[in-house]
């Protein structure tokens, strides 16, 4: 992320206060804007949302795999009481985020801001589901029968779209998040996502916490 684009500590503090109200707040519209895509890009995105492999938790270390799921499940319990459903959702989030080359904790923060983990959330602009995906993507990718309220379908689209925007912005997360929300150039949404990510979903693998070097994921 480029330096100098995040507001000062005071603004971050105000955003943190705003986040405390999110459990009862409406979905923040994830109004991705339609942009013509080159045929090669459209084909690549179509392929990216087509894989139907069963989700797994791609953390190679068994103890860390268990710890991640237990910790994130405890943090999500207030929003999703059903333990089995929390496990399914968290496993799918980690799988889809990792598959798209995204930090799963970032995706958790984005979902908190976008829909507050409401599967059937609909924004005023028509964005749908956990990651507030705009329906025009179904037509763009030639998959008009896909259901954006289906858990894994929504996560697959959302992660693929964010990855696409990151590629367009050459890794600039600030601008990619702005594109995702349809508010490119405005600081409010990227800062809300980063605050949610850091305050509520930050997590460090055991070996990194112990200073033993990076832990590889499959």
Give a count of the beta strands, DSSP E runs of length 2 or more: 0
Determine the N-to-C terminus distance.
25 Å
Number of helices: 10
| Uncertain runs | 1-27, 214-218
Task: Report on this structure.
The chain has 218 residues and is mainly alpha-helical. Helices cover 53% and strands 0% of the residues. It contains ten helices and no strands. It has helices spanning 9-20, 39-48, 62-76, 83-99, 104-115, 136-140, 151-168, 173-181, 188-200, 206-209. Mean pLDDT is 81; it is low at 1-27 and 214-218.
What is the structure about, briefly put?
With 218 residues, this protein is mostly helical. The chain contains ten helices and no strands.
Keywords:
218 residues; globular; mainly alpha
Q: Strands, helices and their partners?
A:
Layout lengths: L8 H12 L18 H10 L13 H15 L6 H17 L4 H12 L20 H5 L10 H18 L4 H9 L6 H13 L5 H4 L9
């Amino acid at each position: 992320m480029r330096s100098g684009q995040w507001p000062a500590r005071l603004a971050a503090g105000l955003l943190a206060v705003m986040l405390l109200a999110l459990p009862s707040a409406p979905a923040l519209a994830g109004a991705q804007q339609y942009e013509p895509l080159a045929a090669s890009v459209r084909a690549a995105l179509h392929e990216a949302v087509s894989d139907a492999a069963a989700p797994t938790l791609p953390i190679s270390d068994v103890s860390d795999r268990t710890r991640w799921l237990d910790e994130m499940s405890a943090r999500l319990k207030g929003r999703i009481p059903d333990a089995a459903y929390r496990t399914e959702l968290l496993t799918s989030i980690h799988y889809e985020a990792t598959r798209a080359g995204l930090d799963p904790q970032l995706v958790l923060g984005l979902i908190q801001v976008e829909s507050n983990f409401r599967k059937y959330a609909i924004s005023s602009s028509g964005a749908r589901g956990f990651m507030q995906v705009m329906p025009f993507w179904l037509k763009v990718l030639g998959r008009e029968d896909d259901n954006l309220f289906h858990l894994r379908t929504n996560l697959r689209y959302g992660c693929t779209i964010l990855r696409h925007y990151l590629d367009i912005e050459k890794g600039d997360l600030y601008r990619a998040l702005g594109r995702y929300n349809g508010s490119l150039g405005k600081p409010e949404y990227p800062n809300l996502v980063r605050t949610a990510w850091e305050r509520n979903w930050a997590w460090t693998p055991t070996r990194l916490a112990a200073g033993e070097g990076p832990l590889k994921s499959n």
